[in-house]
Amino acid sequence: xIRMVSRVEAPDYQADxxxxxxxxxxxxxxxxxxxxxxxxxxxxxxxxxxxxxxRFTNVAAIAGTPFQPxxxxxxxxxxxxxxxxxxLGTGVELVFVNGFFAPALSSSRLPAGVAAGNFAxxxxxxxxxxxxxxxxxxxxxxxxxxxxxxFFADGAWVRIGPKAVVKEPIHLVFVSLxxxxxxxxxxxxxxxxxxxxxxxxxxxxxxxxxGLPSPAGEAEGPTRLVNAAVEISLSESAVFTHTLLQQxxxxxFHVSCCGARLARGAQFTSRVASVDSRFVRNDxxxxxxxxxxxxxxxxxxxxxxxxxxxNHTSIDxxxxxxxxxxxxxxxxxxxSTGVFNGRITVRPGAQKTDARQASRNLLLSEEALVxxxxxxxxxxxxxxCSHGATVGQLDEEAVFYLRSRGIGLAEARNLxxxxxxxxxxxxxxPAPLRARLEETLKSHLPAATGALA
Length: 453
Known about the structure:
This protein is an alpha/beta fold.
């Protein structure tokens, strides 16, 4: 039975924080940020369904599980062969196992104008970005973001220099092991990522969160909490794409908080794909802080059995002549549940804003349930804004059309499902990642053969 918890029992976390604080990376400023974040978390605790932003997502199972902070040491239990289907073969692939950098699994052929590393490296490598940590979104935005700031022990940072154009994607791979370690308690993993693109720079970063069996084998029930935070800072005229893949398996709770801040003329694209995860909550906030800035947010989640995925997005048009495009799609089967809550804010003075938002959801069973809530808050009068949401079942007319062309019922239904998801999957780069998602979707379908092959 899940114990209902409305706020965390702070002494348990207090002991962990007191024990680990001096071992965590960073200088005096980061020490202050960590302490302030932990104090806020301890005072508020985990959110409950009484909080409006969490009323469709119950985190009682997380609050009631005695997670222990992950420690280094698991890196040697993973080989590059284990990651053969995950690695993209790009020049820069930084791999983390249970939140800690694994240099033996990584490759780092940095092109000109690019610097990258991990936070737990020597202090002189952290200092260039340490002053920027916590400035993109003010920590804590959520209790989970505060928990990440307090406890993150390692993570990735990438800096794209002025006018540097990086053609190959930079791949950040976060591996969590699904089985028990020396201590049988479930793990709490708090990876952090800071991505900075300076004036005129262009780059793409792919963040893959993957679950793998540990040498001890699979474990039943929840084995880990992956609580990730990403900060993205785009300088004037920067062009940047961040692709997030969440595929961590039935034992994982995954919570992600991502904040992006755009200067004048910067362009940001976010693509989020959530598949094969027990529980996912994504909070994505974008501040269009400079004139002419723009963003495109695409999301796709595939759920089955009793999985749950919750996407909360916020786009803040704080300057004139800014634009945003947002499309989130869900395919739900079994007794799974999904949530989409998207808010577009147009501030006073943000004239000539052009914003469009859509949430579209496909229910494959009578037990599947989705809640969708697109929102507009407009405080300027010369704008073009629209939003909409749909929830429905398969288009039987499309199925009938395919069957009239000699395609069997199961194959026809699957083709319609694939076409629904392809609008988002087709935009995902690089091609190997797109192909992997397509194969994952096909494997979820009842008859993934014949016309889908």
